[in-house]
């Protein structure tokens, strides 16, 4: 069947999720795409830090990186710094890319653990290129050979999500997506199949479609509301339920990493953009009120606030199915995990990739829907485990919120991972998991989970070779980083090459 003969795809909501979906479906689906959004309702207005996969998304759309950074006031991101999670004054980075590039047959940590036990290893951070570059405030790419990035040094972005949505809107409309301004008043379902038949807007306009994509944010009007898909609440493991956000002035000397600083009952984010710094304090309302959370945030800014602080309420968890009947949810409509590892925009992107791979034609195939839901649940729950680890393995003794986090029962999928790591430095990872072995390693070690042993095969390497290998990796990182430009001038030259 010619795709143009199929009923339209209707996207409900025009936040980051809605316009990311519109841009890709407009570009690739070959059929009519409508997007309904309400200016009166607006968007959630946060969401500024990403992980390197975002570059694949932009590349699939053919976006030019310099233009994208100009349009979204974006900066480069090589890592996330976690300050105070292992205890006051402690800090570590979760840097993108590998740790110990060029090690032996085993994953690097086994050699590092052996050398560490003998008192001959430096801190893990010395062996991760992005970590060394982040701490030096450097950005990589074109210093070695023009146009050729240093291999194994992935980067992501910080950007203004509102500007990104506006940029994607222009792209989507240029690719034929029709935007309908209006407020969805009700959702009409087919009496026989129960599928969604149409969105009914204020003023009784009806928007009919074949496939509906719910991007209505926390409201989840279609999947949660009309179709009644249950919400799986993860508050028991991810207990924060509020955030207060405020932008502040920047002096233009931005770090190439996001900062996450542990506070009394939660943590504070700092995201440097070209035109401002995004800040927010995520906290648990059982342990802290909104006034105290706001005060703490305002007392810890690097510049004067440029807007009033705004409180957002949320519940961590996900909808039990991300695709029900003929409706898929993207973004906050499908659930929310707090922004600790910058995964929300990535989850939108991952669902869009699945949607493109499994897009139904005239009929929905139940097997496809089931597979979509299996993949989504797997992805969400493994990310959830990674986030829980940050709370569970905290070192902030004597603070009631953090004491409670350390005492919680965690999912088996996480406790097994931590036990095997503790026993022998082994990181068990199933191949579809988002976070890599170096990612788990940095957070585990950074939060004080140090293995009692390592794989004995590491002992097969002669000691002199082991010492030389560690020295070579650390020295190579130092040498590469010493030749790199500072982040801010690099960015300026990149976005405005004149
Ligand atoms: P929204 O932006 O809320 O958009 C919903 C859309 O639906 C709007 O267009 C609205 O007008 C429309 N709508 C709703 N109801 C109706 C109706 N009745 N009729 C018509 N239209 C309607 N993600 C990251 O990746 N990195 C981060 O650093 C990050 N930080 C975050 C910090 C906080 C505190 C929170 C809460 C989230 C954060 N996120 C982050 C998540 C990120 O904000 C979202 O994933 C992203 O913005 C997508 O939002 P959305 O499009 O799903 O929802």
From TrEMBL:
Chain residues that bind L-tryptophan: 341
InterPro entries named among the record's database cross-references: FAD/NAD-bd_sf, Flavin-dep_Halogenase_NPB, Flavin_halogenase, Trp_halogen
Binding site for FAD: 14-17, 332, 345
Keyword Nucleotide-binding: yes
Catalytic residues (positions): 77
Gene3D superfamilies in the cross-refs: FAD/NAD(P)-binding domain
PANTHER family found in the cross-reference section: FAD-BINDING PROTEIN (PTHR43747), FLAVIN-DEPENDENT TRYPTOPHAN HALOGENASE (PTHR43747:SF4)
Protein name: Tryptophan halogenase, putative
